[in-house]
Specification:
Elements lengths: L10 H11 L3 E4 L4 H9 L8 E4 H6 L16 E7 L7 E6 H14 L7 E4 L7 H7 L7 E4 L2 H4 L2 H11 L3 E4 L1 H8 L11 E4 L6 H10 L4 E6 L9 E4 L11 E5 L3 E6 L12 E7 L5 E2 L3 H7 E3 L8 E11 L5 E6 L3 E4 L2 E4 H9 L4 E11 L2 E10 L7 H14 L8 E4 L35 H14 L17 H15 L6 H5 L3 H32 L2
Parallel strand pairs: 1-2, 5-6, 7-8, 8-9, 21-22
Antiparallel strand pairs: 3-4, 4-14, 9-10, 10-11, 11-17, 12-13, 13-16, 15-16, 16-17, 18-19, 20-21
Length: about 550
């Protein structure tokens, strides 16, 4: 089996994953070789994995005969690390049978054939990347590997889908929302849109069906622990009138159950914990028998030795057998497709010596869900902006960017119940989108006015001052891609996405754009001078 590592993750998190997995070998490209060596140098308490640089392996003598290695259904296919509630990421082990079953089950459901083009948009460190990469060869189809910058740009992605003839596209709902926020884009070849990663709001599904009635919309549900998707539902207009889109019915060779607290099946229509049995159920968590035993339990109604995976999701069954998602029973959340355990973030916060208490919650803003942080400083410690920045920097060194809250508040204390546990329901709301770090200062020239207008439109803000911080106003990575795309279109300049993160105010972004404009003018002058010199040489 293989374990994908995203080189964009903080080095401390990569180090922790390598240590937890005890992987014997690390394979990298030449571009990441130095980063890989530094990572291995920092390992502690585990044997150092062998490092193989792919370009060097290709340049060496390789035997041409088949090595004779057999991989059966019970062999490990891959390990994917997800957020863990105890403060440590957990490595999900998926076997060959589950991986292959997930891919094959999509073929008849989506009527896939050699004429299809599947979009590969997910990072290799996420489980949906497996089917995006590997399913097409099973039926002679093609994989279109979408560049990262395009995969996260709603309008750029739709244009790419149209240009390359992609027929199957998988996207998180927040990205789909960005696709529908602008003018209609023709999608002549697209046959299927699969929302994934988080629950798709019914009203968003209705908007998609209104704009693209001929493109099938399939709600796919499944945890990484069960080889990706375990249920499909073909969305129609009638199903968009409820509070949640239905999860649907089980995929091939998987079975879904709803259990109450006593491990008894709940009656039809009652809410219970959704549990999965069948081919897709994974092996468990790497090196963590305790968490494996809690999540992968003996099947109370199955064959001897059969296991059941507890998803932690709540659902109910309709009379027609279709399942409807209701919510979570724990503190795991999904934001913009990322699976996040609030406890892992809180564990990192509780390690910080200046903090007496801390919590992380989720709030709904005009631009979707946001992580919010609640902090209590020790007596005598200044709860100021400098300390908050220090707290955030420490988190960024340990956690992926999507797990670092954008909105924070200092408090004298946090609410706890009679047992001394944090009372999450009593946590106060933090003003998302109204956190202006500076007094309002209106745009001072035409460029700042254009940029402020784009920001206000995308952020759904009444007005944006030149010193207002993009992230404090409720911005996030997907909205940043929309702004970068709008700026490029309106100003006819190639503004990279990283500029949005480096220049988080209108004033800073305007200065960056002026630098691009000046550079473009200088290049134009050089081109004109070169043309003039060529003309003179021809005289």
């Amino acid at each position: 089996g293989y374990l994908p590592l995203d080189p964009g993750l903080p080095s401390a998190r990569l180090q922790r994953i390598v240590e937890l997995s005890r992987t014997p070998m690390l394979v990298c490209s030449a571009a990441c070789a130095e980063q890989a060596r530094q990572l291995l140098d920092e390992l502690a308490g585990v044997a150092r994995p062998q490092l193989l640089v792919w370009e060097e392996v290709q340049g060496s003598h390789i035997a041409s005969h088949n090595p004779g290695i057999h991989s059966g259904p019970d062999n490990l296919a891959y390990v994917i690390y997800t957020s863990g509630s105890t403060g440590l990421p957990k490595g999900v082990m998926v076997e060959q049978r589950g991986m292959l079953n997930n891919q094959l089950s999509k073929v008849p459901y989506l009527a896939l054939s050699e004429h299809d083009v599947i979009a590969q948009t997910a990072s290799q460190s996420f489980d949906i990347s497996v089917w995006q990469f590997l399913a097409a060869p099973l039926f002679g189809a093609k994989v279109e590997i979408v560049p990262n910058a395009i995969a996260h740009d709603p309008q750029g992605l739709l244009a790419h889908v149209q240009a390359t003839g992609i027929t199957v596209l998988e996207s998180v709902p927040s990205l789909i929302q960005g696709m529908l926020a602008n003018d209609h884009q023709a999608l002549d070849g697209l046959r299927w849109m699969l929302p994934t990663g988080e629950a798709m709001p019914p009203e968003l599904a209705a908007q998609w069906l209104q704009r693209y009635p001929r493109i099938g919309l399939v709600n796919a549900y499944g945890p990484a622990e069960c080889s990706d998707d375990v249920a499909f539902f073909r969305v129609d207009r009638a199903s968009t009138r409820g509070s949640y889109l239905p999860i649907g019915t089980p995929t091939d060779n998987n079975r879904l159950y709803l259990y109450g607290e006593d491990q008894a099946l709940v009656p039809l229509g009652a809410v219970g914990e959704l549990c999965v049995a069948g081919t897709g159920v994974g092996r468990g968590y790497v090196g963590d028998p305790v968490r494996t035993a809690l999540a992968f339990i003996p099947h109370p109604h199955g064959a001897p030795g059969e296991r059941l995976y507890r998803t932690g999701d709540l659902a109910r069954q309709r009379p027609d057998g279709v399942l409807e998602y209701v919510g979570r029973i724990d503190h795991q959340v999904k934001i913009r497709g990322f699976r996040i355990e609030l406890g892992e973030i809180e564990a990192r916060l509780h390690e910080q010596p200046e903090l007496r208490d801390a919590a992380v919650g989720v709030q709904e803003g005009v631009n979707g869900k946001h992580l919010v942080g609640y902090l209590v400083a020790h007596q005598g410690v200044s709860a100021d902006a400098a300390l908050l920045e220090q707290v955030k920097q420490r988190l960024r060194a340990e956690l992926p960017e999507y797990m670092v809250p954008l909105h924070w508040g200092w408090f004298d204390s946090l609410p706890h119940n009679a047992n001394g546990k944090l009372d999450r329901k009593a946590l106060p709301a933090i003003d998302i989108g109204g956190q202006h770090s500076q007094a309002y200062l209106a745009p001072r020239d035409e460029l700042e006015e254009v940029l402020a207008g784009i920001w206000a439109d995308v952020l759904k803000a009444e007005r944006v001052g030149v010193h207002d911080n993009f992230f404090e106003l409720g911005g996030h990575s997907l909205l940043a891609t929309q702004i970068a795309s709008r700026v490029q279109k309106q100003l006819q300049l190639n503004v990279p996405l990283r500029a949005m993160f480096e220049c988080s105010t209108v004033e800073a972004l305007a200065a960056y754009v002026r630098g691009l404009q000046d550079s473009a003018l200088d290049e134009e002058k050089v081109d004109r001078l070169s043309d003039l010199m060529a003309e003179l040489e021809g005289l």
